[in-house]
Amino acid sequence: MNIPVLETGISLTITRIFDAPMARVFACFISKEEMSAWIGPYDIRGEVLEMEPSIGGRYRIAMRKPDGSEMFAGGAFQAIEAPSRIAFTWQWEDGEANTLITIALRDLGGRTEMTFHQEGFKEDIYRDRHIHGWTGCLDKMEAWLAKGVRQSERGLAKGPVDLSPA
């Protein structure tokens, strides 16, 4: 199933190294429980409402802002190659155009290098907002993998998540 994505040349790429095996990092993107533990930028709490990890399968995420308002995003899986590659569309339900996210994972002997690429942004401002949002999400994912503390068990952070031992 291929969902149209704008070919604008406007994209973002984030590379991270996680102190976790590839299979665990992979699960963070296809498991409802795993993703609900970390999804959402620094001050937003996300919850995965729907997760069908198969080609063409859909997912849907609610993001709750500190003021109680909600935003929703969702899409469909385009590729699932366990445990090294996942691709899925991403679209805000407010009508922003579909983008395509591709996640490539590489084993580093018990650690995992992740390359996160999102393409098809209509304008630079949308890409820039997503850089901030995904940086917060991935900081929370790193804390989840390192400490096992779900975002609902700690206060919402306004900036980078503290990864020092508890």
Keywords:
disordered C terminus, 23% helix, globular, 7-stranded antiparallel beta sheet, alpha+beta, single chain, Alpha-D-Glucose-1,6-Bisphosphate, Chain A, domain 4
State the gist of this model.
The protein is of the alpha+beta class. The protein contains three helices and seven strands. The protein has one domain: 2-Layer Sandwich (Alpha-D-Glucose-1,6-Bisphosphate, Chain A, domain 4), CATH 3.30.530.20.
Could you explain how this protein is built, in words?
The relative contact order is 0.24. The chain has a single domain, classed as 2-Layer Sandwich (Alpha-D-Glucose-1,6-Bisphosphate, Chain A, domain 4), CATH 3.30.530.20. Helix content is 23%, strand content 36%. It contains 3 helices and 7 strands. A hairpin with a 4-residue loop joins strand 6 (99-107) and strand 7 (112-119). The longest helix is centred in the last third of the chain and has 24 residues, at 124-147.
Low-confidence stretches: 161-166
Which word captures the global form? globular
The CATH architecture term is 2-Layer Sandwich
Give a count of the beta strands, DSSP E runs of length 2 or more.
7
The CATH class is Alpha Beta
Determine Rg (CA atoms, Å).
15 Å
What topology, given as strand order, has the largest sheet? 1-7-6-5-4-3-2
The secondary-structure element order is EHHEEEEEEH
CATH topology description: Alpha-D-Glucose-1,6-Bisphosphate, Chain A, domain 4
User: What is the count of distinct domains?
Assistant: 1
Sheet having the most strands:
7 strands, antiparallel
Kindly report the average pLDDT value: 89
Total DSSP helices? 3
Structural class: alpha+beta
Helix content: 10-25%
Kindly estimate the percentage of residues that lie in beta strands according to DSSP. 35-45%
Report the span from N to C terminus. 44 Å
CATH superfamily: START domain
